[in-house]
């Protein structure tokens, strides 16, 4: 439980730095901290394989890509003059609404509400081999094979699109 | 509260709200992209939490939560790549990544 | 609270970190004397017999040098960068098995800090984090040469991570498990993986050179190119931390190579039977074997460094993307064929 609050605090703090700071490189670095904290949350939810994948893919490749773009375009701190008060107010209201709705859902959703038994020493029960690679792989390559292939196609399409979009001029 | 599931869901909601704040309240294109990544990760946390606490065979926990989260991860990677290419194109056109400069459809 | 387990883990962590950090000064000595041997000259020979205290002298020098902070440099990031580089390298050591089990006071203690199901994946994750140390160093120095060096070095590392991943995947296909101890045990029972997957071994070796920024892939730090690359502006202790991080990365690469392809800590069968080893003696022999294999590869790193010329950056990228990745795919297909032919259960 204590570990959860530490990891959650790190995640929220890093997210706030990303949203509030003005220097893009600092934002990117705190995005890395945020992603590592989310990987910690995954480990707390017994999804170890997904946590390792999150670190390798997200923190190890995507944010590196973002950092490369920031450095190659030599982006400096953002200029002043953000949005006015009404926009910020609407954003805050939306955020509070979302938190309220999801909190209420967490408390009243039937199969899950107050229904998660916690054994005396604070360990949550789960199926053996829940977050392991084997269970994951079996599900991915049998039941979810078509979505898996579709996602690979989507990645190839995105790759081609990104290379094309970033070209200076199209050679005929 | 003693219900751990609520805590995870609340964490996801807070992170999503912060991400939305970032997208709405900032002008820089890269900042908006990073806030979108925040939102996607918050959604992933919610998905994995629900998957973990749903009653499965025998003990709670279905693997679909993680599988869907993996798909979201992969699609987020693809979207980040395309988004960054768009940011580069915007920079070449306008000389800066300020999205307020891309307001008019014609210029 | 299982205090014995906690104490065992604490002792293991301390021992492994201390040993691996102690390897670094030994490596600097090996590097400089080895350079001398390969270039047909004497290496350092003034400080102690055969120059054995040279690392001590180097350490003292680093300690007493002035610690500069370049003007207009981003101070927090500048200071954090060497720590990130070292932390990533040390974290990778947590999943490597150094021996099988040690029986102390009736309890079996596995000689690995974290015997996780997804151990190999965690190793890859930790080495992915090492890129950030370099990026942070290059950017925060507020110096064009540093920034270029940092970008080039990180581009090189992430490009060769793919070839590294493919070489590792072939072993995983053959072994059917991500747990390093299981991979080592499988190799102990049949032949070493290098005999099944020689191409993969070569790929992992070459990617290891590129990942650790060692020759022939050390363009980002070559003195004639970009002054010092990403660590131009660093001095004294921070520079020595980068130095240590580079050697630690070498150690991690060598450990990965040995664990996945060369049988890890497994003592060859005939030696085991000849000496009649069992129990704690076997564990000690296994640790010795592991370190012997790792030291062989560290010597190989040094040997190659002082023998081959370095690659130009575009040649480096060409090799990484257009040659190593297709070979990596061939390697995975070969591993899959081996599994189909029933080489491993």
Short recap of the structure:
The complex is a heterotrimer of chains A (172), B (107) and C (345). Chain A is mostly helical. Chain A has helices at 2-20, 24-44, 48-72, 85-108, 133-141, 145-165.
Describe it.
The complex is a heterotrimer of chains A (172), B (107) and C (345). Chain A has 172 residues and is mostly helical. Among the domains of chain A are: 76 residues, Four Helix Bundle (Hemerythrin (Met), subunit A) (Up-down Bundle); 41 residues. In chain A, 69% of the residues lie in helices and 0% in strands. In chain A, helix 2 packs antiparallel against helix 3. The mean pLDDT of chain A is 80. With 107 residues, chain B is mostly helical. Chain B is built from 3 helices and no strands. In chain B, helix 2 packs antiparallel against helix 3. The longest helix of chain B is centred in the last third of the chain and has 31 residues. The mean pLDDT of chain B is 84. By secondary structure, chain C is mainly α. Chain C has one domain.
Topology:
The complex is a heterotrimer of chains A (172), B (107) and C (345).
Chain A (H helix, E strand, L loop, with lengths): L1 H19 L3 H21 L3 H25 L12 H24 L24 H9 L3 H21 L7
Chain B lengths: L3 H22 L3 H25 L10 H31 L13
Helix pairs in contact in B: 1-2, 2-3
Chain C lengths: L2 H36 L15 H11 L10 H18 L8 E4 L2 E4 L8 H22 L3 H32 L4 H10 L3 H4 L1 H14 L11 H4 L9 H26 L7 H7 L3 H27 L7 H28 L5
Antiparallel strand pairs in C: 1-2
Helix pairs in contact in C: 1-2, 1-10, 1-12, 2-10, 3-4, 3-10, 4-5, 5-8, 5-13, 8-10, 8-13, 10-12
Per the principal axes of the C-alpha atoms, what is the gross shape of chain B?
elongated
**Which stretches of chain B are low in confidence, meaning pLDDT under 50 for 5 or more residues running?**
none
Total count of helical runs of at least 4 residues of chain C:
13
Strand content of chain C: under 5%
Structural class of the secondary structure composition of chain C?
mainly alpha
What's the rounded overall pLDDT mean of chain B?
84
Helix content of chain C: 55-70%
């Amino acid at each position: 439980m204590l570990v959860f609050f530490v990891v959650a605090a790190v995640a929220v703090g890093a997210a706030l730095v990303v949203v509030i700071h003005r220097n893009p490189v600092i934002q990117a670095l705190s995005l890395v901290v945020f992603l590592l904290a989310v990987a910690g949350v995954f480990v707390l939810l017994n999804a170890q394989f997904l946590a390792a994948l999150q670190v390798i893919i997200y923190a190890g490749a995507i944010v590196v890509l973002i950092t490369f773009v920031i450095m190659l375009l030599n982006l400096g701190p953002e200029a002043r003059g953000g949005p006015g008060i009404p926009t910020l107010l609407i954003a805050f209201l939306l955020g509070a609404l979302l938190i309220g709705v999801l909190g209420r859902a967490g408390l009243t959703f039937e199969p899950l509400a107050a229904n998660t038994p916690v054994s005396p020493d604070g360990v949550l029960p789960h199926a053996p081999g829940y977050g392991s690679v084997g269970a994951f792989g079996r599900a991915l390559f049998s039941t979810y094979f078509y979505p898996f292939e579709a996602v690979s196609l989507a990645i190839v399409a995105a790759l081609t699109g990104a290379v094309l979009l970033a070209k200076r001029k199209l050679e005929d | 509260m003693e219900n751990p599931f609520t805590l995870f869901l609340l964490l996801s909601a807070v992170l999503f709200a912060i991400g939305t704040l970032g997208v709405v309240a900032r002008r820089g294109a890269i900042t908006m992209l990073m806030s979108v990544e925040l939102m996607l990760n918050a959604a992933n946390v919610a998905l994995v939490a629900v998957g973990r606490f749903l009653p499965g065979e025998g003990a709670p926990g279905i693997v679909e939560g993680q599988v869907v989260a993996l798909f979201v991860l992969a699609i987020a990677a693809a979207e980040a790549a395309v988004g960054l290419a768009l940011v580069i194109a915007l920079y070449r056109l306008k000389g800066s990544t300020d999205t307020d400069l891309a307001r008019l459809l014609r210029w | 609270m299982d205090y014995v387990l906690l104490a065992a883990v604490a002792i293991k962590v301390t021992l492994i970190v201390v040993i691996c950090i102690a390897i670094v000064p030994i490596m600097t000595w090996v590097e400089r004397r080895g350079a001398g041997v390969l270039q047909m000259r004497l290496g350092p020979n003034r400080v102690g017999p055969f120059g054995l205290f040279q690392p001590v002298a180097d350490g003292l020098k680093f300690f007493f040098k002035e610690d500069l902070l370049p003007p207009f440099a981003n101070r927090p990031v500048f200071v954090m960068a060497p720590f990130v580089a070292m932390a990533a390298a040390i974290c990778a050591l947590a999943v490597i098995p150094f021996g099988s089990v040690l029986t102390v006071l009736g309890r079996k203690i596995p000689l690995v800090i974290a015997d996780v199901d997804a151990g190999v994946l965690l190793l890859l994750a930790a080495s992915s984090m090492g890129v950030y140390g370099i990026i942070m160093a290059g950017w925060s120095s507020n110096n064009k040469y540093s920034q270029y060096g940092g970008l080039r070095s990180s581009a090189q590392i992430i490009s060769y991570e793919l070839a590294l991943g493919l070489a590792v995947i072939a072993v995983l296909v053959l072994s059917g498990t991500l747990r390093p101890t299981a991979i080592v045990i499988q190799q102990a029972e049949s032949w070493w993986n290098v005999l099944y997957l020689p191409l993969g071994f070569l790929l992992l070796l070459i990617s290891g050179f590129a990942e650790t920024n060692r020759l022939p892939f050390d363009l980002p730090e070559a003195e004639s190119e970009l002054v010092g690359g990403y660590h131009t502006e660093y001095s004294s202790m921070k520079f020595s931390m980068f130095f240590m991080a580079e050697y630690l990365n070498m150690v991690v690469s060598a450990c990965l190579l040995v664990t996945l392809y060369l049988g890890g800590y497994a003592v060859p069968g005939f030696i085991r039977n000849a000496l009649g080893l069992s129990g704690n003696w076997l564990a000690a022999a296994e640790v010795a074997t592991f370190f012997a294999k790792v030291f062989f590869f560290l010597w190989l790193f040094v040997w190659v460094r002082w023998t081959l010329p370095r690659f130009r950056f575009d040649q480096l990228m060409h090799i990484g993307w257009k040659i190593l990745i297709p070979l990596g795919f061939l390697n995975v297909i070969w591993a899959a064929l081996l599994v189909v032919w029933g080489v491993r259960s």
